[in-house]
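Record format v2
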Amino acid sequence: MLDERIAEWRSYLRRGQAIHQVDVDELEDHLRSQVADLKEAGLDEDEAFLIAVKRIGDLEALSREFASEYSERLWKRLVLATDAGESGVGWNREALVAVGLAVAAGVAIKIPELFGVHLNGPDRDVSFYIRNFSLFVLPFLAGFFAWKRGMEFAGRLWLMAPFMAAALVMNLFPFTPEGHTELLAALHLPMALWLTVGVAYAGGAWRDHDQRMNYVRFSGEWFIYFALIALGGGVLMGTTMFIFGAIGLDAEFLLNEWILPCGVMGAVIIAGWLVEAKQSVIENMAPVLTLLFTPLFTLVLLAFLGTMVWTGSAIDVEREVLIGFDLLLVVVVGLLLYAISARDPQAEPGAFDGVQLVLVICALLVDAVALWAIVARISEFGFSPNRVAALGENLILVVSLGWSAVLYARFLARRIPFAPLERWQTAYVPVYLVWASVVVVVFPLVFRFQ
Amino acid sequence: MKIGKDLVAASATPMVLAILSEGESYGYAILRRVDELSGGELQWTDGMLYPVLHRLERNGYVKATWGKAESGRRRKYYRITDRGSEELASQRQQWRVVDATLRATSFHPFQMVPQGI
């Protein structure tokens, strides 16, 4: 009984941001000593506990005292190293596994070189790398999660299947080198495999909606961490080029052959590990960025619609423009998704929700115009892999956004709670996976590998 | 008796150092000793002792080690350092000066000029 109470009290203490694990240990020892003394004085356990807790003092005041002592703790640091005195076995092993897998991925990307498939140089086979790059690193990331979640053997076997199937498809299909279907497959494969990694992330429980939402959150943070690491890597490479150049050595070979490919592969794993390690300790960045950019994008779209109506100009139908509108929809879906992922489900509908609804409706209107143009182009020039892909993606995103808009309107009218909105997003995730797989496998067959 | 907050805060450092100069101790025991020494007059809020101890450790006046209590639990023990002893001596001197000044003035409450210090 006492132990339970103390455990509760400990987690209550931990809410004081400046109070760390070791401090809690120390205070717990104090509490137990106090309780023991009071019991000796004749009080029963409940009374002793209550009085002891009261004597420790008010949590607010305590936090403030600790905070003024340890002001640097208020910047939530990613404390990977456990504080002195605690067994660091847990995080040490994870770090070793993560680094090991990162190294393995870096080595794996170099293995084709042994078989004469070069990345650089006159006889390079860029097409091979473009098709297969995600296969060199994502299996390792999936392996990391399978290990971390303790998946059983059967689950791991099932997990390997999509990767092996992808390897076979990407390499046995007789693609026309650098043709449309190959490029489309190469672009969609990472997405399909990323969602497969999500199955590993969920520990095999891919039907669980909460786990899907967690993976969405993970993906957003991963992307940000990866981008930051990539920036840092760019600085590293630039500095390397410069200083070696200063002594007359050209470091370009080293960079292109080793640092760049191995670095990118390793960074994928490391970013994944860091996001796992920090989880709720550090504020998630993706929702913060969403909060910032949703109103901005809404304004831009409103301005665009207004301009289109005012000048009466139609959308110039080039292939690149249409893909651009697909990307616009992707951005809007992304903004919506990350706002939903971070929103407190119990909160009442607010102004920001209204802004999001406006954003979605504007995007749908803009897209309606673009879609009209795409359809016209297809009926005029026939079906090509790119046009069909662009059309398919557009439709998929329109369905997602359209139903979200309906649900959002109902939510703002207070006719439904927030949960259905979240559910719709997570329920829709398999659609992306299926579509990506279709583009990778079916398109080449249908369009005869052009 | 209710002692003012500022006075409690100011006296905490020399008092903790003085108690530690009697020997190595831990948080709860230090509090009990304060209670004992003051005859129950000084009532510190238990939790507030620990930021003080940590500050003393940060400044190098005390050294902390994790040990085992009689019950087998982990317990953090504090020991005064040489720097801490010097600081204690310095603080005691300061308190002596303040106390002596107060004592001198309070004996002659109605005279405009103090007779002697």
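Residues 285-417 of chain A form one domain.
The CA atoms of residues 230 and 264 of chain A lie 8 Å apart.
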